[in-house]
Amino acid sequence: GAVVSQHPSRVICKSGTSVKIECRSLDFQATTMFWYRQFPKQSLMLMATSNEGSKATYEQGVEKDKFLINHASLTLSTLTVTSAHPEDSSFYICSARPQSGVYGYTFGSGTRLTVV
Amino acid sequence: LAKTTQPISMDSYEGQEVNITCSHNNIATNDYITWYQQFPSQGPRFIIQGYKTKVTNEVASLFIPADRKSSTLSLPRVSLSDTAVYYCLVGDTENTGFQKLVFGTGTRLLVSP
User: Which of residues 11-40 of A touch B (CB under 8 A)?
Assistant: First the structure.
Protein backbone atom coordinates (compact mmCIF):
# COMPACT_ATOMS: atom_id res chain seq x y z
CA GLY A 1 0.00 0.00 0.00
CA ALA A 2 0.84 3.72 0.11
CA VAL A 3 1.83 4.13 -3.52
CA VAL A 4 2.50 7.49 -5.12
CA SER A 5 2.49 7.61 -8.89
CA GLN A 6 4.20 10.37 -10.80
CA HIS A 7 3.77 11.13 -14.48
CA PRO A 8 5.50 11.60 -16.83
CA SER A 9 8.74 9.91 -15.86
CA ARG A 10 10.68 12.06 -18.27
CA VAL A 11 9.87 14.97 -20.53
CA ILE A 12 11.77 17.11 -22.96
CA CYS A 13 10.37 20.50 -23.82
CA LYS A 14 11.41 23.59 -25.70
CA SER A 15 12.47 26.71 -23.89
CA GLY A 16 9.51 28.99 -23.23
CA THR A 17 6.89 26.26 -23.07
CA SER A 18 5.11 24.95 -19.99
CA VAL A 19 5.19 21.44 -18.59
CA LYS A 20 2.74 19.79 -16.20
CA ILE A 21 3.77 17.01 -13.84
CA GLU A 22 1.17 14.90 -12.07
CA CYS A 23 1.45 13.26 -8.68
CA ARG A 24 -1.23 10.79 -7.62
CA SER A 25 -1.76 8.87 -4.43
CA LEU A 26 -3.10 5.55 -5.68
CA ASP A 27 -4.40 3.83 -2.58
CA PHE A 28 -4.82 6.57 -0.03
CA GLN A 29 -6.01 10.10 0.27
CA ALA A 30 -3.40 12.81 0.61
CA THR A 31 -4.49 16.19 1.87
CA THR A 32 -0.88 17.27 1.77
CA MET A 33 1.78 16.54 -0.79
CA PHE A 34 5.30 17.84 -1.16
CA TRP A 35 7.28 18.77 -4.24
CA TYR A 36 11.05 18.48 -4.42
CA ARG A 37 13.68 19.30 -6.99
CA GLN A 38 16.97 17.50 -7.28
CA PHE A 39 19.98 18.50 -9.38
CA PRO A 40 22.62 15.92 -10.35
CA LYS A 41 24.74 14.68 -7.45
CA GLN A 42 22.80 16.87 -5.03
CA SER A 43 20.23 16.26 -2.34
CA LEU A 44 16.51 16.82 -2.63
CA MET A 45 15.44 20.40 -2.17
CA LEU A 46 11.93 21.04 -0.93
CA MET A 47 10.10 23.42 -3.25
CA ALA A 48 6.60 23.62 -1.86
CA THR A 49 3.88 22.03 0.20
CA SER A 50 0.71 21.30 -1.72
CA ASN A 51 -2.53 21.49 0.24
CA GLU A 52 -5.81 20.09 -1.05
CA GLY A 53 -8.31 22.83 -1.65
CA SER A 54 -6.03 25.70 -0.78
CA LYS A 55 -2.96 27.52 -1.98
CA ALA A 56 0.41 25.87 -1.88
CA THR A 57 3.10 27.00 0.51
CA TYR A 58 6.38 27.73 -1.22
CA GLU A 59 9.84 27.55 0.27
CA GLN A 60 11.96 30.64 0.31
CA GLY A 61 13.52 31.36 -3.04
CA VAL A 62 11.03 29.32 -5.07
CA GLU A 63 9.05 31.40 -7.54
CA LYS A 64 5.37 30.67 -7.11
CA ASP A 65 4.51 32.14 -10.51
CA LYS A 66 7.10 29.92 -12.12
CA PHE A 67 6.10 26.70 -10.42
CA LEU A 68 2.32 26.52 -10.28
CA ILE A 69 0.90 23.92 -7.93
CA ASN A 70 -2.67 22.73 -7.97
CA HIS A 71 -4.08 20.23 -5.49
CA ALA A 72 -7.68 19.96 -6.62
CA SER A 73 -8.50 16.55 -5.19
CA LEU A 74 -7.42 14.28 -2.36
CA THR A 75 -5.44 12.09 -4.72
CA LEU A 76 -3.91 14.48 -7.23
CA SER A 77 -1.44 17.31 -7.11
CA THR A 78 0.08 18.90 -10.19
CA LEU A 79 3.20 20.96 -10.67
CA THR A 80 3.36 23.15 -13.76
CA VAL A 81 6.70 24.61 -14.75
CA THR A 82 5.76 27.71 -16.71
CA SER A 83 7.89 29.28 -19.40
CA ALA A 84 10.55 26.70 -18.82
CA HIS A 85 14.21 27.53 -19.37
CA PRO A 86 17.27 25.26 -19.51
CA GLU A 87 18.10 26.09 -15.88
CA ASP A 88 14.77 24.50 -14.89
CA SER A 89 16.07 21.16 -16.12
CA SER A 90 16.09 18.93 -13.09
CA PHE A 91 14.59 15.88 -11.42
CA TYR A 92 11.26 16.67 -9.80
CA ILE A 93 9.86 14.40 -7.10
CA CYS A 94 6.62 14.45 -5.14
CA SER A 95 5.79 12.78 -1.85
CA ALA A 96 2.83 12.14 0.39
CA ARG A 97 1.92 10.23 3.49
CA PRO A 98 -1.21 8.34 4.45
CA GLN A 99 -3.05 9.51 7.51
CA SER A 100 -2.09 6.49 9.52
CA GLY A 101 -0.94 2.92 9.42
CA VAL A 102 2.24 3.44 7.43
CA TYR A 103 5.49 4.83 8.66
CA GLY A 104 7.26 7.46 6.70
CA TYR A 105 6.48 9.36 3.56
CA THR A 106 6.09 7.73 0.16
CA PHE A 107 7.80 9.27 -2.82
CA GLY A 108 6.93 9.22 -6.47
CA SER A 109 9.39 7.83 -8.97
CA GLY A 110 10.32 11.30 -10.13
CA THR A 111 10.14 13.25 -13.38
CA ARG A 112 13.26 14.08 -15.36
CA LEU A 113 12.67 17.44 -17.06
CA THR A 114 15.00 18.55 -19.81
CA VAL A 115 14.49 21.96 -21.33
CA VAL A 116 16.19 22.50 -24.68
CA LEU B 1 13.51 20.56 11.96
CA ALA B 2 16.68 19.17 13.47
CA LYS B 3 19.68 19.40 11.17
CA THR B 4 21.49 16.18 10.40
CA THR B 5 25.11 15.46 9.56
CA GLN B 6 26.25 12.37 7.71
CA PRO B 7 29.45 11.28 5.98
CA ILE B 8 29.38 12.32 2.34
CA SER B 9 30.44 8.93 1.07
CA MET B 10 31.38 5.42 2.14
CA ASP B 11 32.91 2.46 0.35
CA SER B 12 32.36 -1.19 1.11
CA TYR B 13 32.61 -4.66 -0.40
CA GLU B 14 29.98 -7.25 -1.00
CA GLY B 15 29.11 -9.31 2.05
CA GLN B 16 30.33 -6.75 4.56
CA GLU B 17 28.24 -4.99 7.18
CA VAL B 18 27.92 -1.27 6.64
CA ASN B 19 27.18 1.20 9.39
CA ILE B 20 26.24 4.77 8.52
CA THR B 21 26.10 7.21 11.39
CA CYS B 22 24.02 10.35 11.47
CA SER B 23 24.39 13.19 13.97
CA HIS B 24 21.35 15.15 15.06
CA ASN B 25 22.35 17.11 18.13
CA ASN B 26 19.22 19.27 18.19
CA ILE B 27 16.68 16.48 18.01
CA ALA B 28 13.43 17.34 19.75
CA THR B 29 11.48 15.17 22.16
CA ASN B 30 8.78 14.32 19.62
CA ASP B 31 11.15 13.72 16.71
CA TYR B 32 11.56 10.36 15.07
CA ILE B 33 14.57 9.29 13.02
CA THR B 34 13.89 8.02 9.52
CA TRP B 35 16.23 6.67 6.89
CA TYR B 36 15.61 6.66 3.16
CA GLN B 37 17.45 5.05 0.26
CA GLN B 38 17.65 6.61 -3.17
CA PHE B 39 18.87 5.06 -6.40
CA PRO B 40 19.79 7.26 -9.38
CA SER B 41 16.78 8.74 -11.16
CA GLN B 42 14.34 7.32 -8.63
CA GLY B 43 12.45 8.76 -5.69
CA PRO B 44 13.67 7.99 -2.16
CA ARG B 45 12.46 4.76 -0.61
CA PHE B 46 11.66 4.37 3.10
CA ILE B 47 14.05 2.01 4.87
CA ILE B 48 13.47 2.24 8.59
CA GLN B 49 12.24 4.53 11.33
CA GLY B 50 12.84 4.62 15.06
CA TYR B 51 12.57 6.69 18.20
CA LYS B 52 14.99 5.07 20.63
CA THR B 53 17.15 2.00 21.29
CA LYS B 54 17.03 -0.45 18.41
CA VAL B 55 14.71 -1.15 15.53
CA THR B 56 15.14 -3.99 13.07
CA ASN B 57 13.30 -4.92 9.92
CA GLU B 58 13.98 -7.22 7.00
CA VAL B 59 16.52 -4.91 5.37
CA ALA B 60 18.26 -2.95 8.12
CA SER B 61 18.73 -2.15 11.77
CA LEU B 62 18.65 1.26 13.39
CA PHE B 63 20.57 1.91 16.57
CA ILE B 64 19.75 4.97 18.64
CA PRO B 65 21.67 5.75 21.85
CA ALA B 66 19.95 6.99 24.96
CA ASP B 67 20.68 10.67 24.30
CA ARG B 68 19.27 10.30 20.75
CA LYS B 69 21.80 12.80 19.40
CA SER B 70 22.94 10.33 16.80
CA SER B 71 21.76 7.20 15.09
CA THR B 72 23.37 4.41 13.09
CA LEU B 73 21.88 2.64 10.14
CA SER B 74 23.26 -0.87 9.86
CA LEU B 75 23.05 -2.79 6.59
CA PRO B 76 24.02 -6.44 7.04
CA ARG B 77 25.95 -8.20 4.27
CA VAL B 78 25.60 -5.58 1.59
CA SER B 79 25.38 -6.45 -2.07
CA LEU B 80 26.12 -4.47 -5.21
CA SER B 81 22.45 -3.48 -5.36
CA ASP B 82 22.83 -1.58 -2.07
CA THR B 83 24.89 1.05 -3.86
CA ALA B 84 22.77 4.15 -3.36
CA VAL B 85 22.47 7.38 -1.42
CA TYR B 86 21.17 7.05 2.12
CA TYR B 87 19.44 9.94 3.84
CA CYS B 88 18.87 10.42 7.54
CA LEU B 89 15.94 12.64 8.46
CA VAL B 90 14.68 13.79 11.80
CA GLY B 91 11.22 15.11 12.43
CA ASP B 92 7.88 14.63 14.10
CA THR B 93 6.65 12.33 11.35
CA GLU B 94 4.45 10.30 13.63
CA ASN B 95 2.28 13.26 14.36
CA THR B 96 -0.98 13.39 12.48
CA GLY B 97 0.17 16.66 11.04
CA PHE B 98 2.25 16.62 7.90
CA GLN B 99 5.60 17.97 8.77
CA LYS B 100 7.71 18.66 5.74
CA LEU B 101 10.82 16.58 5.27
CA VAL B 102 14.05 18.46 4.72
CA PHE B 103 16.85 16.37 3.30
CA GLY B 104 20.49 16.74 4.23
CA THR B 105 23.42 15.81 2.04
CA GLY B 106 22.99 12.07 2.40
CA THR B 107 25.68 9.38 2.31
CA ARG B 108 26.69 7.94 -1.02
CA LEU B 109 27.45 4.25 -0.46
CA LEU B 110 29.45 2.41 -3.08
CA VAL B 111 29.57 -1.37 -2.80
CA SER B 112 32.27 -3.07 -4.84
CA PRO B 113 32.70 -6.74 -5.76
Answer: 31-32, 34, 36
For the cut 90, the answer to whether the pLDDT of residue B100 exceeds it is no
Q: Taking a contact as any Cβ pair under 8 Å apart, which residues of chain B between 75 and 104 contact chain A?
A: 87, 93-94, 96, 98, 100-104
Query: Which residues have C-beta within 8 Å of that of residue A7, sequence separation ≥ 6?
Result: A21, A22, A24, A111
Selection from A114, A97, A104, A94 nearest residue A36 by Cα: A94
Nearest CB neighbour to B101, from listed A100, A105, A108: A105
Chain B residues whose CB is inside 8 A of the A93 CB are: 43-44
Contact between residue B29 and residue B55 where contact means Cβ atoms under 8 Å apart: no
Residue of B nearest to A49 (CA): B100
Element (H, E) at B5: none
With bands split at pLDDT 50, 70 and 90, how would you rate the model's confidence at A72?
A: confident
pLDDT of residue A24: 96
Whether pLDDT at B31 is above 70: yes
pLDDT classification of A53: cutoffs 50, 70, 90: confident
CA dist A79 and B36 (Å) reads 23
Rounded to whole angstroms, how far apart are CA atoms A81 and A99? 29
A104 with B105: Cβ contact below 8 A: no
